[in-house]
Amino acid sequence: MPAHRAPATALRPRPPEGEGGVSRRRFLGYLIAAPTLVVAAEMGRQTVFGAPEASAAPIPSVQTTELYDLSDAIRDAARPTANLIKIEVNRDGTVSFAMPRSDNGQGIITSTQMIIAEEMDLELDQVVVTLADARPELVFNQLTGGSSAMFTLYTPVRVAAALARGRLLDAAAAAFDQDAGTLSSRAGVITSLTGGTLGIGELAEKAAVQTTEQVEVVLKPREEFRILGKPQTKTDARAIVTGKKQFATDLQIPDALPSVVCRAPDLNGAPIAIDNVDEIRSMPGVTDVEIIATGVAVRAVTFGHCIDAVRAMTVQWEPGTVAGQDDESVLADLRKAELPLAVPPAGGSTVEGDFTFYFKSNSSLETNCAIADVRSDSAEMWFPTKTPITAQDQIADLLGLPTNAVTVHVTEGGGSFGRKLFLDAALEAAEFSQKIGKPVKLMWTRADDSRQGRVHPMATSRVRASVTADSVLSFELRHTSVSMDVSHGFGDALTVAASRLPSGNLAVAEVIWELSQTVPYNFGVSTRLLNEVDMRFNTAPMRNVYSPDSTVARELMVDQIAAKMGRDPYEFRREFLKHDRQRAVLDKVAEEGNWGRTMEEGTAQGISFQTEYKSVIATLVEIDCRPETVNRSVREGLTGPRVTKVTTAVDVGVVINPRGIEAQILGAINDALAMTLTGSMSLVDGHFVEASWDNYFYTRQWNTPPEVNFHLVESDAPEPGGVGELGVGGSTGAIACAYARATGKVPEYFPIMHKEPRPFEPYPTVPPIPPSPTNGLDTTF
Amino acid sequence: MPTQTFKLNGEQVTVDTEDDVRLLWVIRDLLGFTGPKYGCGINVCKACTSHINGKAFNPCSVRVADVADSDEVTTIEGLADGEDLHPMQQAWIDYDVAQCGYCQPGQIMAAVAKVRQCVTEGREVDDTAIEELRNICRCGTYQRIREAIKAGAENM
Ligand code: FES
Ligand code: FES
User: Fold this and answer.
1) What distance in angstroms lies between residue B137's CA and the mean position of ligand 2's atoms?
2) Residues of the domain holding A397
3) What is the CATH number of the domain that holds A383?
4) Fewer CB atoms near the end CB (10 Å): N or C, chain A?
5) The pTM is what?
6) Rounded CA separation A666/A255 (Å)
7) Same domain for B66 and B16?
8) Among B97, B102, B107, residue to substitute to test ligand 2 (most atoms within 8 Å of Cβ)
9) What are the mean pLDDT values of chain A's consecutive 10-residue runs (781 residues total)?
10) Which ligand is nearest to the CA of B96?
11) Is the distance from CB of A236 to CB of A413 less than 8 angstroms?
């Protein structure tokens, strides 16, 4: 057997048991024929021994998610068609990996650098992780979503890195003419017992292979970890604070001039004609004006010139897709589609809840944008996307080009929140560039991004529980939603096609619902059903998809059930939770957050529990609903109830970067605050009115809690659970419960401030972009 | 076409464009300094926050013609002293503030100005002062921003 057959086994003699068994397994990887060392591993099918850990077979009386959840589905979608992710050792001593995922600020580039550096005994700056262009051969494997990135990448990346390390040691051993087991490796330098040293750059060619072969490898045991589990600052922090980090619109692509689309007053109104095209074409700086599917596109020397041109356009429009509709008419349609609850109401022994969740915007701070350079026989695109394979396919389709004639470069995104699963700007940029035969840098304005961009769909949740003096016999949840656009499927051509069949979108939505929703309490017969109504809104699975709403409904009901039984909300949850791992985080917040302390009238605590993405979270919030707080005034800001303190505890299984996990949870709490208290869209006469961050009340400094305490609870779970979305549904419930306890009223709709007077005068819809002020020098400080 | 000139990050710059083009587009699209970000174009989100003569302002809402030849405009690219970061930038790294980073150039420029303002007015850099900042961070990094501003202020 060649020396590299099982190099790591030889180099790292290990005890047979421990660490949940996972890292003791041997894994399959590949040495790839190349001039320098290239190693690879398969996504989704790494284990040599051991069956898949989860089974999709439904087991009566146990909820699907407890056996098999969305994380498993995204990973297992890969199994039949798994393909290789590759790590390369370069002659300059660096190691590179083009990650088939998208980073929109969640820090997975840093986490992946940490994983590779750990396994290969490198420093972080020796590992270069970039975002891969669209790679259709990866099929299911290039979707970023469902907080699955670390769960799906952790093991394959480790396998490839471990192989590379073993192979480099073998090459060094041959060069030193010594046994590989006597060498040590640190920071990319391999040292022999006699003090000889070789850099991995020097070994990159020697370690290369001429024919691709499959080999087995054993991974580094957790107790030897030096990097994983230690706090790490994001590796792009310096680039960000110096303004060097580049987003799509910062790229200088030759001749890709700024472009903006003039949009209809109605949601999704299509253009019929532009009356003054000659006038617009002759405006200063304007180079091109064309009608495209979604409006009238203009290209000019600056975005400012584009905005002026859009404001000057006279355009005739078709009515929109929801012409004449408003919040209440949409709600009435949802009500008609609600599925019945099965258990009949039985007077004193049932507890019921009925909640409405209004539209919310998932607009990120970077608006929808894309650069397109479409030629007669090819197209090159740059934009932030979580579904590059779908993107490449759809763009090729739109342009009438073969898929491989379209190159999609994935740029880092300025936030996603579900937006970057879709191609709204990319399709427009491609269409416009093709029409005018020039490259374009197309960007949505804030007003468009807010009013015409995607939203989290309006939904209702009805809950009915039947209870006895000390137990819950049944717990039913019926979620009815404006159709959630999940046409991205699992990021591949196959499920995208499936989602477009009649009822296909609902079928995919039902899968996501079933795989993400769980009632973690011992509540007897528990059912959670989803129905969706297609009303032609632009929707998206906003951060944490259904859970921010369904968790509010569930946790408010848990408090009601506890009250009916005369029990304390924390004690009740503690008793009815199913597992000790769940109770551990709940106990942590109760203790650290001083649950049950005396609170002033008009203020209260609320507590919640949530499990998703193979992680668990408990949150305890304190809210202040006293009139002096609710009515405090901020110029053009929405105030209202203030969450003053948050204590949260998570167990996410294997911890890669605790500092990154904390960042994700802190961010999610701010998302949850907006979703529960302040942030919503209002549909009026067929369009959304909110056109600015002073209209759509995402959390600001004056809303954010002055005190947030985060606790990471140790776990022996074998894999890294999802983190990026966990904290949203992980805290909406606690906020809602605290509000109900402080005011003595269980809210019936969310966000709680949705119907309060809005501190703004809506901008007109024609022209679609408000004018840029000129008084900026009067507001300096 | 009129010629516009002002000082940008210590250099005198000159560009030919109409008087009413907002300074943000002159800086980003014509001069290629992309540190200040577009987030609204109407002086709301504060992603474009930069300094004029040492004070925070929003170039999306200033006509280029309203900036005098001698006015010193500083973007995030001009905040550090060569390789030496400004204490506020260093605090941002120490507290690992950024997530996507899109808002952060504006956050840092606003924070520096807010601290200077507090010092001039003899106020403390506390939560009340920080809550006067209107900068949006859609990733929700507000807690770490607060910590970093207080730490950065100590070293300014
Ligand atoms: S872009 Fe200037 S304040 Fe928003
Ligand atoms: S870090 Fe993403 S918007 Fe602030």
Assistant:
1) 5
2) 249-320+368-443
3) 3.30.365.10
4) N
5) 0.89
6) 40
7) yes
8) B102
9) 33 38 66 80 48 30 51 51 71 86 73 91 89 59 59 83 91 91 92 92 90 85 90 91 96 97 97 98 98 98 98 97 94 90 76 95 95 97 88 94 94 85 92 98 97 94 90 89 74 54 62 70 85 84 84 95 96 94 96 97 97 91 97 94 97 92 95 96 96 96 97 87 87 97 97 94 96 95 96
10) 2
11) no
